Amino acid sequence: MMRNVKASKRIVIKDSTLREGLDVPDVDFSFEQKLNIATLMDQAKVPEMEVVAPGKVFQDLEFVKKLKAGGLGIRTSGLVYSFNSQAREEIKEASKYLNRFDLLMPVSPKRKPYDRNDKISQLLEILSFSLHHFTEIGVGFPHAAQTDIEFLLDISNKAVRQGARRVTLYDTNGNSDPFQIYDLVKRLKEDLDVPLFFHGHNDLGLATANSLAAVYAGADGLDVTMNGLGDRAGNAPLEQVVLSLHLKGFETGIILKDLKSLSESVEEASGLRVSKLAPVVGKHVFVHKSPGHLESPDLFEAFDPQLVGSKRELTNK
Questions:
Q1: Is 120 helix (H, G, I), strand (E, B) or coil?
Q2: What is the value of pTM for the model shown?
Q3: What is the pLDDT of residue 16?
Q4: How many Å from the N-terminal Cα to the C-terminal Cα in the chain?
Q5: 1: pLDDT strictly greater than 70
Q6: What are phi and psi of 26, to 5 degrees?
Q7: Three-state DSSP class for residue 125
Q8: Taking the domain 12-270, which CATH number applies?
Q9: For the chain, what is the radius of gyration of the CA atoms?
Q10: In a 3-state reduction of DSSP, which class is residue 17?
Q11: What phi, psi does 207 have (nearest 5°)?
Q12: How far apart are CA 20 and CA 24, in angstroms?
């Protein structure tokens, strides 16, 4: 695998904790919890938060209205199903409050609309309608990593020519590997002249690796969630992705020392315990017990604990 981008490139991080996180069974953030998480994200310099879910647009926009009143600098975004019978009403309302949104069109033949020509025509029709109300509109393709590349190129190019300002590729069932994602993103990047984002699911434990591969192939941004929250096995964890990018020389603008407190806040709000062995934010990440490590413990650490405001601990317990 060859790196296709300069390591100094700025990568846009879009956090989806308040959208994907609510797809986790038994997780239901209160308004106060949502506001607190958004505030902490803003303080950590996360540039964008996806806070509106497809199918719950009107409901989620109620939070966005209150969030805007708080004066936070973080940009808000959301998702609208392009084939939804209520899409036009949702778009009109979303255009009033969100900084941007994406129109979703599943590219799998097993999801409605089933015919490829119908997928293209419906997406372009609703995209044209949207652009009469708003300009900051992208398109997102669920199952992008599990469909025919030529169809994906066709529908992506037509959406961009119609006016879409961002394309997001979803590894919806999380079964891809970094080599597949690298090839996919590289091929799309060669054809498209708009920012390209990647959205990774963690069903095989490869969401972080796949996200990094997407960046190496030229992706401009990544979808993530704090602590990897998301349905099934979750999504690419913000803390892992951001720190990995930093160590590889990419910029995100996110304050690394805020990752631990962000993780703890989301852990408390979600009720889902973070494993002590979790990369970056786990309790045992910098704890050394093996006698062979004690002379030079830094040789056994992937990064300096001070980067994330942690401390090294030596123990014989």
A1: helix
A2: 0.97
A3: 98
A4: 42
A5: no
A6: 70, 10
A7: helix
A8: 3.20.20.70
A9: 20
A10: helix
A11: -60, -40
A12: 8
